[in-house]
Amino acid sequence: MIAIVGLSACSSGMETTEGPAAAGPKSGKLTIAYLQKQGDQQYFVDQADGAKAAAAELGDVDIKVVNLGTDSNKAISELDSVIAQKVDGIVIVVPDQQIGPQVIEAAKAAGIPLMASDDIIADASGTEAPFSGFDGTSMGELVGGEAARLYAEAGWTAADTRIISAYKQDLTACTQRVEGAAASFGDAVSDMPEVVDIGTDNSATDAQNKAGAIITANAGVKNWVVWGCNDESETGVVTALQNSGVAPANIIGVGLGAYLTCKDWAAGQDTGNKASLFISGAEVGKAAINSMVGLLRDGTALPPVSIANTEIVNADNWEEKGVVCT
Q: Is residue 274 in a domain?
């Protein structure tokens, strides 16, 4: 079971932006725009489904889901579009955090309450918008801790092991995750293998393609530990390793999401994807909509930070932990 925990403003280390003073209460039908980067990725599909489920439970709430892909220009144009449609509230997962000030200012000027999901955004002064998602550093620490446990259990040494860390390098959420993983792994072992960073666009295809050159340049390496910003990055690298002839027994891949790693487990395959941190996009979507509707209908202030719980799953327990593998 994944739960969402609301935190006070001090949790983020920064004050949060004030929503429009007259945001609630409202009666009648509400329309909330849910603008998502990479809306075709399973995690974000789950998030949208969670938002819709919360809306259905609350009643008389319409969710307008928009897939922004990775296009910041589209994000701004779609934001302008939903503002022109006079939606009651906006939840956004930005393709690029650099557009945060523009997004926040546009919503503020229109008098429409805004909540960020997954990736924190801030205005020009550095003040963060209310946020629903995960603590990137803590997530990474759990991934790194599990990788270290499996590494020690396997009896590997730094001399014959490399760590591949694959992530979108200009995304704060990603750097927090992989830095947390590296720190946690280093704290748990006496011999830290060399870490090789791979910049990706957070897709499995790009991670697989980018890993090829690293694998070729390290042809003499026997064992590989893999982590990344998300399941796409980690499974992409694991696929590249296995395609190059590295046996699953010589790969410790720890994903982040569980929605792709579970596919090998569901199929009963021998795989380098040994574990993953289960994150529920659905719960994040539900939390965002519940908070937004609470503001609009009751005048309850948006929580500055809502953090979802996470847990490590593997081939033995993923089903009982509630991972939905499609």
A: yes
Q: What's the pLDDT at 25?
A: 77
Residue with the two structure tokens 């599990």: 146
Yes or no: say if 229 and 165 are a contact pair by the CB < 8 Å rule.
no
Give the rounded distance of the alpha carbon of 165 from its chain centre.
16
Q: Are 16 and 297 spatial neighbours (Cβ–Cβ below 8 Å)?
A: no
- 168: domain CATH number is 3.40.50.2300
Q: Write out the chain in H/E/C secondary structure.
A: CCCEEEECHHHHCCCECCCCCCCCCCCCCEEEEEEEECCCCHHHHHHHHHHHHHHHHHCCEEEEEEEEECCHHHHHHHHHHHHHCCCCEEEEECCCHHHHHHHHHHHHHHCCCEEEECCCCECCCCCECCEEECCHHHHHHHHHHHHHHHHHHHCCCHHHEEEEEEECCCCHHHHHHHHHHHHHHHHHCCCCCEEEEEECCCCHHHHHHHHHHHHHHCCCCCEEEEEECCHHHHHHHHHHHHHCCCCHHHEEEEEEECCCHHHHHHCCCCCCEEEEEECCHHHHHHHHHHHHHHHHHHCCCCCCEEEECCEEEECCCCCCCCCCCC
Question: How far are the Cα atoms of 17, 91, 287 from residue 87, in angstroms, in the given order?
Answer: 19, 11, 19
> Could you report the per-residue pLDDT of 227-251, keeping only the tens digit for each?
999 999 999 999 999 999 999 999 9
Q: How far apart are CA 170 and CA 178, in angstroms?
A: 12
pLDDT at 26: 82
Q: Are 262 and 185 part of one and the same domain? A: yes
Domain that holds residue 71: 4-134+281-309
Indicate the number of domains in the chain: 2
140 and 269 share one domain: yes
